[in-house]
Design brief:
The protein is of the alpha/beta class. Helix content is 37%, strand content 18%. It has two domains: 3-53 and 314-416, Aspartate Aminotransferase, domain 1 (Alpha-Beta Complex); 58-312, Type I PLP-dependent aspartate aminotransferase-like (Major domain) (Aspartate Aminotransferase, domain 2, 3-Layer(aba) Sandwich), CATH 3.40.640.10. The protein is built from 13 helices and 16 strands. The strands form three sheets. Strands 4-10-9-8-7-5-6 form a seven-stranded mixed β-sheet, sandwiched between helices. Strands 11, 12, 13, 15 and 16 form a five-stranded antiparallel β-sheet that branches. Strands 1-2-3-14 form a four-stranded mixed β-sheet. It starts with a helix and ends with a helix. Bound molecules: pyridoxal-5'-phosphate. Pyridoxal-5'-phosphate is lined by residues 48, 106-108, 111, 134-136, 201, 205, 233, 235-236, 261.
């Protein structure tokens, strides 16, 4: 079908916030191709790190095809070899307190499952969630999230969610001399005694904000002291993004529940999971996780082969190395008068644009212009952040040094114009 016709049909019949200027035609490795053949270097891995093993990875494609030729569906209560293998693979990699997988199809659905599992397993029902958090678009996950632009006109949302500051150190509202006041706020809220769980993204997708390691350790202690479940939403950070298999390895902190999505199947199929303890699973009860599509066998085959590929090819370690190269190579652009901060770990980075380095006044306008210019030059990235002023970079974990270098050169060239 002609490019123009696809766009016309899309605009007429599909609800989207906005459309990218390219139309998916093909993709391979770290590249996406428009239907007219234009090549884009994919600095987003599809969407916030989703396509971790890269596009068109043969072992994943054939595992899915083999499963499809065997059986394409399994009834909810029917065990299958592929799902058992997947659950074993996941729980072998997650912290040893987490040994049972709840099944779902998306990150949002998995976060709704978190709400159910936590409430069923606690005498309390409230949640503490972070400022700027994103946990998805179902009513439950929206309630945990804090992106007002996606909440407009949808309420009332789930009651009982208290919001605390995320350790966004560049814009700390307390001081430049860190005394972790943000943790005092958490303690204060939890001591009120109504919270069953605290949920956070170990690295916030909105702006690629990475907390200090010490913060996470203390957060764990505060939750334990107050008998509150700590939930890591590892939809973005899971499966190697931070240069470790999971954020839990990076921070050396064990959560009580862990949410997996995106990188679980590298986007080859819709599948997600909440990994919980035996106790939480038992408390949820028999029908608490009935699902028609959750862990469909083809999706499970995609996830299982994806994990095998990731581990065999040491992609988390590769991401760590690539991240070091990226940090070193991009360091000079901090001199640009509009670059306020460059932050990240492994292969998740944010470049925050400001109008003025001293006042830190955010500039969504410049971020948007850079994003558009990069696209014109064949580099696909995104803008996000509390003020929509951060360039987001989350490439496939298989990206080569040369490809990273090429992308950074494009960003540098574009920045020179400002
Ligand atoms: C941290 C986090 N949690 C949950 C979600 C929602 O996942 P999904 O879009 O698969 O529903 C996202 C999506 O970007 C995410 O980044």
């Amino acid at each position: 079908m002609e490019r123009k016709k696809i766009i016309t049909l899309d605009r007429a019949h599909i609800r989207r916030k906005e459309s990218f200027p390219f139309v998916m035609g093909d993709a391979n490795g770290s590249f996406i191709y428009d239907v007219n053949g234009k090549q884009y270097l994919d600095f987003m891995a599809g969407l916030y790190g989703c396509v971790a093993v890269g596009w068109k990875e043969k072992s994943v494609v054939s595992a899915m095809s083999e499963q499809m030729n065997q059986f394409n569906f399994a009834p909810d209560r029917c065990p299958s070899e592929i799902c058992s293998k997947l659950a074993k693979a996941i729980t072998t990699l997650t912290p040893n307190n987490l040994s049972v997988c709840l099944r779902a199809t998306s990150g949002s659905e998995a976060n709704d499952l978190v709400i159910k599992a936590v409430r069923a397993s606690s005498t309390k029902s409230g949640f503490v969630a972070m400022r700027d958090a994103y946990h998805g678009q179902t009513i439950g996950s929206l309630s945990l999230g804090d992106k007002n632009s996606v909440k407009d006109r949808i309420g009332p949302l789930m009651p009982g969610v208290k919001r605390v500051e995320f350790p966004y150190c560049y814009r700390c509202k307390w001081s430049t001399n860190c005394s972790m006041q943000c943790l005092n706020q958490v303690s204060y809220v939890l001591e009120k005694g109504k919270s069953a769980a605290l949920i956070l993204e170990p690295v916030q997708g909105v702006g690629a904000v990475v907390p200090p390691k010490q913060y996470m350790k203390q957060l764990r202690s505060i939750c334990s002291e107050n008998n509150v479940y700590l939930v890591f939403d590892e939809v973005i950070t899971g499966f190697g993004r931070m240069g470790e298999l999971f954020a839990t390895n990076f921070f050396n902190v064990k959560p009580d529940l862990m949410v997996l999505g995106k990188g679980l199947s590298s986007g080859y199929a819709p599948i997600s999971s909440v990994v919980v303890s035996k106790k939480v699973s038992k408390d949820l009860g028999g029908s608490g996780n009935t699902t028609t599509f959750g862990w469909n066998p083809i999706c499970a085959a995609a996830a299982y082969s994806n994990i095998k590929f990731l581990v065999k090819n040491k992609l988390p370690q590769k991401a760590k190395k690539s991240g070091k190269f990226f940090k070193k190579r991009i360091a000079e652009i901090i001199e640009n008068k509009y670059v306020g901060e460059i932050r990240g770990e492994g292969l998740i980075f944010g470049i925050e644009l400001v109008k003025n380095k001293l006042t830190k006044k955010p500039s969504a306008d410049i971020a948007n212009k850079i994003y558009s210019e990069c696209l014109k030059k064949g580099l696909f990235l995104a803008t996000d952040g509390r003020f929509e002023n951060t360039l987001m970079i989350t490439p496939p974990l298989i990206i080569t040094k040369d490809e990273l270098d090429k992308g950074i050169s494009i960003i540098e060239d574009v920045l020179k114009k400002f």
